[in-house]
Design goal:
The complex is a heterotrimer of chains A (585), B (333) and C (282).
Chain A: E1 2-3, E2 5-13, H1 18-31, E3 35-42, E4 51-59, E5 70-75, H2 78-81, E6 88-97, E7 104-105, E8 119-123, H3 125-133, H4 139-150, H5 155-165, H6 171-191, E9 197-198, E10 208-211, H7 212-222, E11 227-230, H8 237-246, E12 253-256, H9 260-272, E13 277-281, H10 283-299, E14 303-309, H11 326-331, E15 340-342, H12 347-364, E16 367-373, H13 374-378, E17 380-383, H14 401-405, E18 431-433, H15 447-463, E19 472-475, E20 481-484, H16 489-502, E21 507-511, E22 514-516, H17 520-528, E23 532-537, H18 543-552, E24 557-560, H19 569-584
Parallel strand pairs in A: 1-9, 2-5, 5-6, 6-8, 11-12, 11-13, 13-14, 14-16, 15-16, 20-21, 20-23, 23-24
Antiparallel strand pairs in A: 2-4, 3-4, 3-17, 10-17, 15-22, 19-21
Helix pairs in contact in A: 1-5, 3-4, 3-6, 4-6, 5-6, 7-8, 7-12, 9-10, 16-19
Chain B: E1 2-6, H1 10-22, E2 27-31, H2 44-48, H3 62-68, E3 70-73, E4 78-82, E5 87-90, E6 94-97, E7 100-103, E8 107-110, E9 122-123, H4 128-137, E10 143-147, H5 151-162, E11 166-170, H6 188-195, E12 199-201, E13 206-211, E14 216-220, E15 225-228, E16 230-233, E17 236-239, E18 255-257, E19 268-270, E20 275-279, E21 284-287, H7 291-305, E22 318-322, E23 325-329
Parallel strand pairs in B: 1-2, 1-7, 2-3, 7-19, 9-16, 10-11, 10-16, 11-12, 18-20
Antiparallel strand pairs in B: 4-5, 5-6, 8-17, 13-14, 14-15, 20-21, 22-23
Helix pairs in contact in B: 1-7
Chain C: H1 6-16, H2 37-51, E1 58-62, H3 70-73, E2 77-80, H4 86-96, E3 101-107, H5 108-114, H6 119-125, E4 130-135, H7 170-177, E5 181-186, H8 190-202, E6 207-212, H9 224-230, E7 231-233, H10 243-251, E8 256-263, H11 269-281
Parallel strand pairs in C: 1-2, 1-3, 3-4, 4-6, 5-6, 7-8
Antiparallel strand pairs in C: 5-8
Helix pairs in contact in C: 2-8, 6-7, 7-10
The chains are: A alpha/beta (585), B alpha/beta (333), C alpha/beta (282).
Chain lengths: 585, 333, 282
């Protein structure tokens, strides 16, 4: 078989080097200029022996999603991998370990569940690893060696990668890992000499790999993050870990707080003190932060909350993806409580988007909720990151000398933005409050004051639109079927559109990192040009569809996927095809 | 009732089909050591010479397996059998229970002591996998050496020649007979092949194979030094019975069975190229290779595994086509 | 202590606007006449004056409750935050801008009720904050419900048959949480309050003042008189480095000791953070 795109999953338990397998394979592919996307899945139960898997998709073309199905499943552990067989494509392959110690019951044997549509390949993974390293370490490299032969990939790309991954280890460690790789390679060459061809463009440049969480942390740090406060929560913790490591080097600090309320409280404090600060959390944490978001709205203290969505409600599905937090992000909290909601669609937007979030938050003195999700946050992908973002596009509105004279922290202005000073700056002092207040910040509950102040707080959201990016419109301009999506689902939509295109059905897509506020005109124009509108998203209610319906008065076809896995592009393509045949009737 | 069949060749699959056709409730698992769906081995040469397509080799489709409810496990083999516990153990240490077991592992070309050290230089052509590997190599090949015996050897030589390859056949015999001692035109075969341009070296055998720059150097017992692009060689065709080595199942060259295809152990049957059947008239065991035998034995084994009582009748002869001539033979006694 | 009329209180504060602490005086307090919180506020003015903290560098953070209004009465930066959340907000301010003087003011409900989860962590991290807990053993702003420090048996709108739970003792909590400066004061004793708040702000690390500040309107059980009758200064010669002795004394209800229970000079959070940052420069 000839391939230009392959999806491989390693499946096993802690100690099998599953995540490392993904890293080595992804790193090697990125180094030779392939496009790569990696999705790791961990079980929520730690147990020391919890199951984990790493899925690696690599291609000569740009990738937008994890696609549909596996070309190869590597089952390092027999029983744990059985359920993953259902993801293997017809004609796909499985590698299983033939050298496990002790007997395996038929029902627990991976091989016994392989159907004739797919092909199993025995590989004495454990035995060869022991032969190479003297321990079970190197199992993953045995498998990678076999994969290398199986798809006729150049062995050097892996050898180089092994050298760089283990660069900090002794030469001996590198040698035994390379030996493990070679043994796997040789075993397949001898026992399964008929292999497949993967086409590589030798002229490609190496590509950078990042995860959404990494990109958010890096983006924030690159635009002046000085303080991070958080509380560990899957799948957002990685952002905090990066901040904890990097901020002290830059004169900043990261605090692990006692809960999410304290985390967002400290972030508000840091912004009050004039420093760029943020927190990162997931659904349960965002719920706890609701009151502090209200405080941020009322006191007009900027704040950034990254919410890496996982399955909900409640503690929900900590290690599974869902886009179920849009409603709480948009509406969670008491009173008339406007906030900016952004949702990046890929790692590149995680990097640039978080920087925009900071700029908007600082200029417009507002909370910004940055909605990533587990899939986007944890997956690794090859990216091109734009680092030349204009640092001065949005800045804090400082008082003029006249304004300082009789300082009004909540001065009524045309754009709704009042001058802001921070502690330590000379000229004036002020107190702020979560109570309704007059222009000076003193508590005030008069009707006129409340309506004036509420209007002012909302007015900022009209004026900020000029600083926001326009929506992106992709696909065929003349298409009758329009799709609107958000967040990481966009990747699956793009690939679904591609599948439909190959079947002769044209579509177009409107996407924006801005969920609220949006450039509404471009959305209105787009929707007006569609005969049918499809809104796919990973939640049961159709939260984004509900927003679009109320905002634009459209009646879309909604695809609700209360998902635990990234959306299948095929599923979207099917809906497009259905819609297309309805249109042509 | 769980019927486990080791071997997904004609005999094994026929038995599986027979069982499921007669008893829908029976559980049937077929374990085949090849990576492919059951195929018609006897058409491999046609496939190799491009006269048929790959899908025409198919003997049993996924649809048929599903329809009949046969569970096929490809690319796996059985390491040991424990008749007392009614268990088999697969190559990856999986342990499987059976109620009735059929061994239909077939036979394959094997190397004797002299050739065994050169195994990695020798090409085989007895499975689809070998054939696919060979098919990739063939366009590059000009000169072939074939050493071996039996009808499949003849088949190979003819196929290579038909593809325009230069073929040298080495045989221990005085003439190229391919052990087809009872065929209709004895004596003519040697001449026939030579007329077709095949070089035949008689009363000789390969003793050494070495890799050389563009292929292999081959040395014979008569100290002939030959060069070639590819070497096909085997000393004999042998039942595959490694899985019973450590068990109490009685065997000689093949697994010994009676005419009901029962082995010496209870609930274990054997059929096809891996068996030696007791011939009541000859009052001795004999090996029966070939497709018609396999078909017939598979059917009988299946029925008997379901508790019926069928006896195997010796197949007298088969007919095959040799470069346009019809050849009728009963081979391999 | 006798009841002061509202006019008397306001007059006094107007006079005080001309006093040496006028630089730190802002809006007039809104508390009830006779409220103990006046003393705490006065103490904070005095401390700011004694330590000469420029208003621009002075940040007072409060939660919700009668004590929550502190920031509006003090000239400096103020943040009237959420109920129970003053400590984390103050933490963010102080860690982000270590040069500021940050004082947290809150009540008993705020500090050991709704916000009880934050207090231990600020204390054990030894953030360079001063936390003044004005304890009136009542929810005054909601007009008189039992608080976490209300005595057992106390009746209120929400405990019509008497408080069943035992009261928390914020002084012992602070000691147990590892606070490095722990004092208890009584709002009748103006000088002591001013003195200890000043010392607390000077302290490098987390300083805690448990100020007994009776509610003259809603609390009929814990009153100036009841506290006064039980009050005693800490014994002469109490070793302020002895945490367990401090704990024993703090637990006592008869008498209720006041004064500086405990103080230890150990590196504050700021010192640790600086050390880490300096280490990373090499």
């Amino acid at each position: 078989m000839k391939y230009s795109e392959i999806t491989i999953r390693f499946c096993g338990i802690a100690g099998d080097g599953i995540v490392a397998s993904g890293k080595i394979l992804a790193g090697a592919c990125a180094n030779i200029g392939l496009h790569v996307m990696v999705n790791n899945i961990y079980s929520a139960e730690i147990r020391g022996l919890g199951k984990s898997s790493a899925t690696i998709r690599f291609s000569t073309e740009k990738l937008y999603s994890m696609g549909d199905g596996l070309d190869l499943l590597v089952g390092m552990m027999s029983k744990e991998s059985i359920i993953d067989l259902r993801d293997v494509k017809v004609g796909g392959n499985v590698i299983y370990d033939t050298s496990t110690i002790g007997d395996v019951a038929e029902e627990d044997s991976l091989a016994s569940h392989i159907t004739p549509e797919i092909q199993g390949h025995g590989l004495p993974i454990k035995k060869l690893a022991n032969e190479a390293t003297g321990t079970n370490q190197g199992k993953n490299l045995v498998a990678i060696g076999a994969i290398c032969y199986f798809y006729s990939l150049p062995p050097e790309m892996f050898i180089d990668q092994i050298r760089s991954v283990f660069a900090h280890k002794e030469e001996h460690i590198i040698d035994i890992n390379i030996k493990a790789f070679n043994l796997g390679y040789e075993y397949f060459r001898e026992n399964y000499p008929l292999n497949n061809q993967f086409e590589i463009d030798k002229r490609s440049e190496p590509r950078a790999l990042t995860s959404g969480n990494d990109a958010i942390a890096k983006g924030a740090i690159d635009c002046g993050l000085k303080f991070f406060a958080g509380y560990p929560i899957t799948p957002a913790t990685k952002i905090m870990e990066i901040a904890a490591k990097e901020l002290p080097k830059l004169g900043g600090w990261t605090l692990q707080m006692e809960d999410e309320i304290a985390a967002i409280g400290a972030v508000l404090g840091a912004w009050f003190a004039g420093k760029r600060a943020m927190t990162a959390t997931s659904g349960p944490g965002l719920s706890l932060m609701s009151e502090m978001i209200n405080m941020s709205v009322m006191a007009e203290i900027p704040t950034i909350i990254v919410n890496v969505q996982r399955g909900g409600p409640s503690t929900g599905l900590p290690t599974k993806v869902e886009q179920g937090d849009l409603n709480i992000a948009l509406y969670g909290g008491a009173g008339d409580s406007p906030r900016v909601v952004m949702a990046p669609t890929n790692s590149e937007e995680c990097y640039s988007g978080i920087q925009l979030a900071f700029d908007i938050a600082e200029k417009y003195q507002t909370p910004v909720i940055f909605l990533s999700d587990l899939f986007l946050g944890q997956r690794t992908e090859t990216v091109t990151i734009k680092e030349n973002i204009d640092r001065n596009r949005c800045t804090r509105k400082k008082p003029t000398p006249e304004q300082l004279e009789n300082f009004q922290r909540y001065q009524i202005t045309d754009d709704g933005v009042s001058p802001l000073i921070v502690p330590g700056e000379p000229g004036a002092v002020y107190s702020t409050t979560g109570l309704e207040h007059s222009v000076t910040g003193n508590p005030n509950y008069e009707e006129d004051v409340h309506s004036m102040m509420t209007a002012k707080r909302f007015r900022k959201f009209e004026s900020m639109v000029e600083d926001l990016p326009e929506a992106d419109i992709l696909g065929e301009e003349t298409a009758d079927i329009g799709i609107a999506g958000w967040g990481s689902t966009i990747g699956s939509i793009l690939e679904g559109m591609e599948i439909a295109k190959k079947q002769g059905v044209k579509t177009k897509l409107i996407k924006s990192i801005m969920i609220h506020p949006q450039h509404e005109d471009s959305f209105r124009k787009f929707f007006a040009s569609c005969k049918k509108i499809i809104v796919p998203e990973m939640n049961y209610q159709g939260q984004y569809a509900a927003l679009l319906k109320s905002r634009y008065g459209i009646k879309p076809i909604e695809i609700h996927i209360p998902s635990v896995n990234p959306v299948s592009p095929l599923k979207i393509a099917q809906k497009i095809m259905e819609t297309s045949s309805e249109l042509s009737q | 009732m769980k019927h486990v069949i080791i071997g997904a060749g004609v005999a094994g699959i026929t038995a599986a089909r027979t069982i499921k056709e007669q008893d829908r409730e029976a559980e049937v698992v077929v374990i085949g050591d090849e990576l492919f769906l059951p195929y018609k081995r006897y058409l491999l040469s046609e496939f190799l010479s491009n006269s048929i397509k790959r899908d025409e080799l198919l003997f049993f489709s996924i649809g048929m397996l599903k329809e009949l409810g046969i569970k096929l496990r490809k690319g796996e083999h059985v390491k040991t059998i424990e008749p007392l516990k009614k268990l088999i153990k697969l190559h990856h240490n999986e342990v499987m229970h059976y109620d009735k077991l059929l061994i239909a592992t077939g036979g394959s070309p094997s190397l004797g002591l002299v050739l065994r050290p050169y195994k990695k230089h020798i090409s085989f052509y007895s499975s689809l996998y070998d054939t696919l590997v060979l098919k990739e190599k063939l366009p590059e090949i000009r000169k072939c050496i074939v050493f071996g015996n039996g009808v499949s050897c003849l088949d190979l030589i003819c196929m290579l020649r038909n593809l325009g390859k230069q073929v040298t056949y080495i045989t221990k015999e005085e003439q190229a007979t391919f052990a087809l001692n009872e065929y209709d035109f004895e004596g003519e075969l040697h001449t026939f092949l030579e007329e077709k341009g095949i070089e035949i070296i008689t009363e000789d055998q390969i003793v050494l194979i070495e890799e050389s720059d563009n292929g292999y150097k081959v040395e014979t017992i008569q100290q002939k030094m030959l060069t070639t692009d590819i070497v096909f060689a085997w000393d004999y065709y042998k039942p595959n019975i490694a899985c019973i080595e450590d068990s109490a199942i009685e065997k000689k060259t093949g697994i010994l069975v009676n005419v009901r295809l029962e082995t010496s152990e209870k609930d274990i049957y054997a059929a096809g190229d891996c068996v030696e059947i007791y011939h009541p008239c000859l009052k001795n065991y004999w090996i029966n290779f070939g497709l018609p035998n396999a078909l017939e034995q598979g059917k009988i084994a299946g029925k008997n595994m379901l508790g019926q009582n069928e006896e195997y009748k010796i197949q007298e002869a088969i007919v095959f086509n040799l470069m346009g001539k019809s050849l009728k033979a009963r081979w391999w006694k | 202590m006798s009841f002061l009329s509202k006019q008397t209180v306001l007059d006094e504060f107007k006079k005080a606007k001309e006093s040496k602490t006028k630089e730190w005086r802002d809006n007039l307090p809104t508390w009830c006449p006779g409220c103990g919180h006046f003393t705490g506020l006065h103490g904070l003015y005095e401390a700011a004056e004694r330590l000469n903290i420029p208003p621009k560098d002075f940040v007072v953070v409060s939660g919700i409750g009668c004590s929550g209004r502190f920031p509006f009465f003090i000239k400096g930066f103020g943040l009237h935050g959420l109920h129970g959340r003053a400590i984390p907000i103050a933490t963010g301010i102080k860690v982000a801008s270590p040069d500021l003087t940050v004082v947290v003011v809150g009540g008993d409900g705020d500090g050991v009720g709704i916000g009880g989860g934050h207090f231990p962590h600020a204390a054990r991290s030894n953030f360079n904050l001063t936390y003044i807990l004005l304890d009136n053993s009542i929810y005054g702003l909601t007009k008189g419900q039992i608080s976490p420090t209300s005595p057992m048996g106390m009746k209120s709108g929400t405990s019509p048959y008497g408080n069943i739970a035992r009261p928390l003792n914020p002084t012992t909590l602070a000691l147990a949480y590892g606070a490095t400066f722990v004092a208890r004061t009584f709002s009748r004793e103006r000088d002591m309050v001013s003195e200890l708040i000043t010392k607390a702000i000077q302290h490098k690390g987390f300083s805690f003042i448990h100020d007994l500040s009776p509610c003259v309107v809603f609390n009929k059980v814990v009153t100036y008189d009841s506290v006064n009758d039980a009050s005693a200064m800490l014994p002469e010669g109490h070793d302020i480095l002895d945490r367990s002795k401090a704990m024993t004394l703090a637990e006592s209800t008869e008498p209720i000791y006041q004064g500086l229970f405990f103080r230890e000079e150990v590196p504050s959070f700021d010192d640790h953070a600086k050390q880490v940052r300096d280490g990373l420069k090499d």
